[in-house]
Structure formats: C-alpha cells, structure tokens
# Entry
Amino acid sequence: MRNKSFEIETIKEAEEGSFHFKGYASTYDNEDRDGDKMLKGCFDASVKGKSVIPMLFNHDRNSVIGKLEIEVDEKGLLVKGFFNLNDEVAKKVYDLMKMGALDSMSVGFLVKDYEPIDKNRPFGGWEIKEAEVVETSIVTVPSNTQAVVDVVKSFDDKEAAAFKEIIKEAVREVQTEEKAKEARRAAILKTLDKGEVHT
# Structure
C-alpha cells in the first residue's frame, strides 16, 4: 500500500453532527517527493464504490480516531473529517490540529493501474491512473512539500496569516534542501561518468 501526504485546508469547532475539518487527501497532476503523479479521475471508481473510510493516526490500523467522507472534484480527493471525541487519542489529535501542531493528512491506497513516467526507469516515478482508497491518516510529518494550510478557523485573521507565513517558510526550506540533494547527486553521477572515482 502506498501513502501520500497533503495539508489540511480547514479546521473548525464543529456543531453537533457536522464535520471537524476538511481538506484534500490527494491532488491531481502535481509531482510529489516520491516522483509520482495522481492523474485526474484515478479515484473515481474507488469513491463510487465506497464514500466513507476510516480515519487513522499515523497509519496505525489499531488507532481508528474517526471517519472521513470522501468525494472527488476538479482538484482531487476532497475529504470531510469526523472525530470520535469519546476516544482519548482522537480528542488529543483534534486539539493539536486546532492549535496548528498537526496539519497534514496522508492517504493510503492500493495502485490498480499505472505507467512509469520515464519508461527507462520503471521503478521511478509513476503516473497513477487508478487507485483504491483504503484509509486516510492524520500524520505528524507530511511528504508533500507543495501544499499549504489555507484556513484555520480557530485562529483570528491575523494569527492565521502569521501561521501561513511560517508554513510557507518551512516549505521553502524543505524545497531548498531537496534542490541541494539533487545537485549533489548530479555531481556524483557526473564524476562516475568521467571515471574519476578513486579508491
């Protein structure tokens, strides 16, 4: 099973029977840090077959903290989350989300159909054409560096703007680190091609 991480869009104090947060568990056509792309429509059959899935914490199948209602739109896989607030772990996770300490989701899915982006690297990045959603987790460390928190309703406007800037700066730092790693890898490969490795 593969996992992909994305940021939560909206967190709110829920009224009785309403959702606690919403966001995109996956978005179409952006390349993630594993080099994969989810193609538009890849979740359609899965959502049609099952529109409610378990919500876990850090992909621990023994820690079901609520449920997610899922649907697809032009952007990707949209979820609405409902915590079981009678559960101690679920309540803790929800409190941490409201304060901004947790803000990311990771979708767990089974790949049904795909093609390698580079046919010369079949185990490199994939274009995923069809995937079955198994679960989605609230996670402490996301893998997607492009998604940014959009709205946190428990903050006032000034606090939310400041928090968004903190997240953006963290994303820039991760992207800079990734570019540096790529440059080092390219330099090593260039050295190997020239036969300049000495032992």
Remarks:
- The longest strand covers residues 126-139.
- Helices lie at 44-49, 88-99, 157-194.
- The longest helix spans residues 157-194.
- The mean pLDDT is 77.
